[in-house]
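The instructor's notes for this session suggest beginning with a concrete chain rather than abstract definitions. Hand out the sequence below and ask the class to guess, before any prediction is shown, which regions might be ordered.
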Amino acid sequence: MDVVLNRLVGRSPVAESRLAEVRGDADWAFGAPTLGEIEKRLRHLDTPEAATALAALESASPQSLEITHALLARGRQHTLRECLGTELALTRTTIRTPDFLEGVRAALVDEDRSPTWQRASHAGRTLLARAFPP
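After discussion, reveal the predicted structure:
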């Protein structure tokens, strides 16, 4: 390990990336407490990067976004082992939901990449309530 580190010491630092340039905006937008607020902040930024992120969020399964947001928020207070256990438990139930099946259909079966998500579904909240009881 020391040999590798010593070889890297004399090299010039990596040039600033585009991601580094927008880091402040990304931290502000994605630091919001709710998905709705994240979307609101991305709209407020009105930059090409924010528009790309917003389009990605709008095309994703609302159930998956809800679950991912909750896992990230709750993960700060748990160990890696606990987080991985929770993710495994959620995966075992999520793969049986209509949105998961629709995603598989759109990506692998029909390959049309045009899923129709259940926007009004409470499946995500139900799964989260089971995974994170009050």
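Then share the key points. Residues 90 and 130 are 9 Å apart (CA to CA). The chain has two domains: 18-59, 61-134.
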